[in-house]
Design a protein that fits this description.
Elements (H helix, E strand, L loop, with lengths): L18 E6 L13 H12 L4 E5 L6 H8 L3 E8 L3 H16 L5 E5 H5 L1 H6 L5 E3 L4 H13 L9 E5 L2 E4 L21 H11 L1 H4 L4 E4 L2 E3 L9 H5 L3 E3 L2 H15 L3 E4 L8 H13 L5 E6 L1 H6 L2 H10 L1 E9 L3 H7 L5 H13 L3 E8 L10 H22 L4 E6 L7 H8 L26 H8 L1 H9 L1 H10 L1 H20 L6 H17 L11
Parallel strand pairs: 1-2, 1-3, 3-4, 4-5, 8-11, 11-12, 12-13, 13-14, 14-15
Antiparallel strand pairs: 5-6, 6-7, 9-10
Helix pairs in contact: 1-6, 10-11, 11-13, 15-16, 16-21, 19-21, 20-21
Length: about 525
């Protein structure tokens, strides 16, 4: 295990070490994300602690990222790229092409979720020299030392690389307990810029307070069939101690003036006792911050009154829950042990506790039984999801529900089932750049499921604001009548789970787009709380 350096000062970067460059491509199409590049901060911690000069360049935040990358490469020994399935792959490859053009001998290393779930295919790409698969902190440091000293790649456990035209795997590296790693090197970033951009993007939810994202754990012990986490972390979970979490939160609060922390752990509420202890320490240290996190639905339902009191006094304001489905058939297949009634009950509890609920449903997860087809189960999933979304808004009108289309991740159980049912995955790394939750990538998706997802943002505004729309109807007859009629039709669709011939949805989407463009010509979705 790598020992943690508890000293507050680190060795100054020295000319004896070459520069380590880490690049964070834009993760979303047509929008920016201003959360901290937490995975890159994690892998930067060890080399930074050992005196290596490290540059982290974030495409969505830094001005002229390409110029910054090329300038930093002049004294670099490695160029590292983080990757998620989707936009990051395309943007990452574009930057790698520039680096290869100007610095043909500089090793290009890919890591992150996509590189970990499809390491061999990633390593096959001519613009990728090495893939760091799985947890990257210790592996990347070992690789840096191998590059710097000329040690062969095959002595570095946990990587994939090309040798004589073939991709070679060096096997798995044991997972490192993140509680023993050096502190997060926030000083490598222009923290003020991240905080201002992130806070502006989330102003509607944080009232302009200074906000950042943060990780307190790695991995996930659950085995959801559609998820990449079981592949990347092998269903293991490692967490920072409550005391260490508080030290880092205190640093964010006192040094950078942070007022809102978003825990972006895969599942923050895995150990409720740990969550409560962190909350107790927040109260004891008078941190006076608000915080949001991720959770499974069952954990929220099991919280007792005393724990709720501690969490609320510590600043708990929002939670994201991956609900994914209300169909008992789908829930059983993907490893979720709750019902639609449980979902609505948790929505009610969160509303009563004044904690904002953000949740997701996924359409198109492949599930097949002996007596039912994918289409039959998909129709059940659609009807129960739309009905449950409507029920959620009835008990919790402040909730935000994201509807997504299933994205197949290599290595997951659902991916294997998808291959059996007509899924044709990309034949190379670049093909994965189009795989995003907002577009359909699978042949079994029902047209109504796709419409349900595509029209959801505007439709759910009508569901949440139906009483307000009636008031508008009385004040402004023409516009009010249109809004009220649209809201009534939308509620009927969600109640029946029918999304065929969505004429009114397309019309309202066009009207909304024109209104937003005329009133807010520079508006964009710059990020979200969770």
């Amino acid at each position: 295990m790598i020992a943690m350096n508890n000293e507050t000062s680190r060795p100054e970067p020295t000319a004896a070490h070459g520069r380590v460059i880490l690049f964070n491509p834009s993760p979303w199409f047509e929008t920016n994300y201003y959360g901290l590049p937490l995975p890159l901060l994690a892998v930067a911690a060890i080399p930074h602690d050992r005196g290596y000069p490290v540059s982290i360049i974030v495409q969505d935040v830094d001005d002229d990222a390409e110029a910054q990358v090329l300038e930093a490469c002049k004294d670099a020994i490695v160029f590292g790229v983080s990757s998620l399935t989707g936009s990051m792959i395309g943007e990452g490859l574009k930057m790698c092409a520039k680096v290869r053009e100007h610095f043909p001998s500089l090793p290009i290393v890919w890591g992150g979720t996509h590189a970990s779930v499809a390491p061999e295919q990633t390593a096959e790409h001519p613009l990728v020299d090495v893939v760091v698969a799985g947890q990257g902190e210790a592996t990347f440091m070992d690789l840096i030392e191998a590059i710097e000293t000329g040690r062969p790649y095959d002595t570095v456990a946990g990587i994939y690389f090309k040798k004589d035209g073939k991709v070679i795997s060096t096997g798995c590296r044991p997972t490192v307990d993140i509680d023993g790693l050096p502190p997060m090197p926030f000083d490598l970033l222009d923290m003020e810029r991240f905080i201002l951009l992130h806070s502006q993007a989330m102003e509607v939810r944080t009232s302009g307070k200074r906000a950042v994202t943060y990780y307190s754990s790695y991995g996930c012990p659950f085995s959801c069939s559609f998820c990449s986490e079981p592949v990347t972390s092998n269903r293991r979970w490692y967490a920072k101690s409550p005391e260490r979490v508080i030290r880092e939160l205190e640093l964010l609060h006192t040094k950078y003036g942070v007022e809102v922390v978003v825990f972006e752990d895969p599942i923050y509420f895995i150990d409720v006792k740990r969550v409560r202890r962190i909350a107790e320490l927040m109260i004891e240290r008078n941190l006076n911050i608000e915080w949001a996190s991720t959770s499974r639905l069952e954990a929220i339902k099991r919280l007792d009154d005393e724990t709720w009191d501690v969490l609320k006094r510590s600043g708990f304001v929002q939670v994201f829950i991956g609900i994914e489905s209300a169909s008992p058939t789908v829930l059983k297949a993907i490893g979720k042990k709750y019902t639609a009634d449980d979902i609505v009950d948790v929505a009610r509890i969160l509303h009563e506790r004044d904690v904002t609920m953000t949740a997701s449903f996924i359409q198109g997860i492949p599930v097949k039984t002996e007596d039912r087809t994918l289409a039959e189960i998909g129709l059940e999933d659609l009807k129960l999801a739309s009905e449950t979304v409507l029920r959620i808004y009835e008990v919790n009108p402040k909730a935000t529900i994201h509807l997504l289309m299933y994205t197949p991740y290599p290595g997951s159980t659902a991916f294997s089932l998808g291959l059996q049912n007509g899924l044709v995955p990309p034949s190379d790394l670049e093909g994965w750049k189009h795989f995003v939750h907002a577009s359909n990538q699978v042949p079994w998706m029902l047209p109504d499921q796709e419409t349900f997802v595509v029209t959801s943002k505007i439709a759910q505004k009508a569901l949440r604001g139906r009483h307000r729309d009636r008031a508008r109807f009385r004040r402004k007859k023409i516009r009010g009548a249109l809004l009220y009629a649209y809201s009534a039709i939308t509620r009927a669709r969600y109640r029946r789970g029918y999304f065929g011939f969505p004429i009114e949805q397309r019309l309202m989407a066009r009207i909304a787009k024109n209104v937003i463009s005329s009133r807010y010509p520079d508006a964009q979705n710059n990020g979200m709380m969770i």
